[in-house]
Amino acid sequence: MALLYLLKRAGVKTFVVHCNYGLRGKSSDNDQALVEEMCMLWNIECNTVRLDVKESSEKNFQNWARDRRYEIFFDLKKQFEANYIVTAHHQDDQIETLFQRILRGSGLSSWSGMSVMDGKIFRPLLDVSKTEIMEFVQQFNIPYRIDSTNEESTYARNFLRNNWFPELNNKFPGWRTNVLAISQRAQEFNQLVKLAAEHVVTEEGNLQRDEFLSKPEPVQRALFHYAMKNQDANTHISGKFLENINKLSMLQTGAKLPISGTWNVIRDRDYFVISTSESEKSEKQTVTKSDVCNNGAESTFFSLNKADFSGDFHQNQLSLDIDSITFPITIRQWQNGDTFSPLGMQGSQLVSDHLTNRKIPAVLKKSVKVIESFDGTICAVIFPPNSGIDEIGTVSDVCRCTEKTNESLILSYT
In the structure, what pLDDT confidence band is assigned to residue 166 with cuts at 50, 70 and 90? Predict the structure, then answer.
């Protein structure tokens, strides 16, 4: 509420999002009512989202709640073309964050804590203590409510806040200043790692294998943290992975090691590539002939459209004889054992061998798609756009366009 008042007072155009988890019954509804009433009074647009806590039954509630609200924030930011997501994290939150990371064994690079500006997340109150905020809302008569669950020590943050910090105040006066100084030391460390990463981490976020393996293991761990945080600042790298980082030297091309539940590191010849597990999931898409003929169809990285065949071929397109294809077609990730007849080749070839012959990078092979007709024939193999290959893919010889072709199925990158 202090932050909302400051944004109003500064004349910043603001869109408010309030998440109601319903954990405290009537009290949660009163929180929502206060936010909505003040937004109406201050002429600020407000949107309330009620979330079903049953979704978190098998998960850590606080992690689930954080993930869900930030998913909502980023969706609405995109929808309303907002500049930033502004949160009211304050200095006490920073101290709690630092303690948690230290106690959980996180590396020194993460001890820098939260940043005032972190990508598109802006935390303008991060250097202001909770005591100063309470004095501010009382001085300016800003209405506010206290979350009663903050007084319970069920969650890690509350345990630190309610049990440890009062004792530290008694026994170590000035401890807060000393803890916040750790953040500064961590920032200095991160600057050194950034300098060391210049010759190891590529612009795409990959690690140059030989350069990386030439460093001592403690430096490797720091460099890996740096590369990972550039991919996803919120991902926690498991301690087990960091303990076994020496196993990267034995990783064969195409093999991978799990970093966390979501991320893996994959060996691709001279590089270690950090890849999300989500991107490796196999998805299938069915496209009918009417889809193609009416408005066209789009897959993950390419489109399909019908066109009259002119006899011309273009490097950035694939042309298939539409009459040689049995619809509906399936667009899917290729699988071991898939075979097709590459254009101009007699007989069939394994798709896996074709990708090797075309020198598709090992880390990108899982992104390769095939178009399969209803009768099971693979009509084309589609390479991902960043594969370094000049062509979009390879057409099956049985689906090639000839002088007898009237209409063609055109595939091009979106």
Answer: confident
Q: Measure the CA–CA gap between 183 and 97, rounded to whole angstroms.
A: 11
> What is the distance between the alpha carbons of residues 215 and 111, in angstroms, rounded to a whole number?
22
Q: Which two tokens stand for residue 411?
A: 């595939």
Measured from the Cβ of residue 267, the count of other Cβ atoms closer than 10 Å reads 21
- The percent of residues in the chain predicted with pLDDT above 70, rounded, is 92
Residues 202 and 208: beta-carbon distance below 8 Å: yes
pLDDT of residue 281: 46
- CATH match of 2-171 with 3.30.300.30: no
Confidence of residue 37 (pLDDT cuts 50, 70, 90): very high
Q: Tell me, rounded to whole angstroms, the distance of Cα 106 from its chain centroid.
A: 20
* Residue that the structure tokens 């590191």 belong to: 265
Give the 3-state secondary structure of residue 407.
strand
Tell me which DSSP letter residue 84 carries.
-
Q: Which residue has the tokens 């079903």?
A: 52
The bridge status of strand 369-372 relative to strand 317-321 is: unpaired
What was the pLDDT predicted at 156?
A: 67
Domain 199-280 falls under CATH 3.30.465.60: yes
- Whether residue 282 contacts residue 369, with contact meaning beta carbons closer than 8 Å, is answered with no
Distance CA(175)–CA(165), nearest Å, equals: 9
Q: How far apart are CA 323 and CA 404, in angstroms?
A: 10
Helix/strand/coil for 385: coil
Domains 2-171 and 199-280 fall in the same CATH topology: no
Instruction: Say how far apart CA 341 and CA 4 lie, in whole Å.
Output: 63
Q: Tell which phi-psi region holds residue 253, choosing left (phi > 0), alpha (psi between -120 and 50) or beta.
A: beta
CA dist 351 and 355 (Å) reads: 6
| Count helices and strands in the chain by DSSP H and E runs | 13, 20
Range name among 6-15, 230-239, 301-310, 311-320 with the lowest pLDDT average: 230-239
Q: Is 388 helix (H, G, I), strand (E, B) or coil?
A: coil
User: Domain extents for the chain?
Assistant: 2-171, 199-280, 285-413
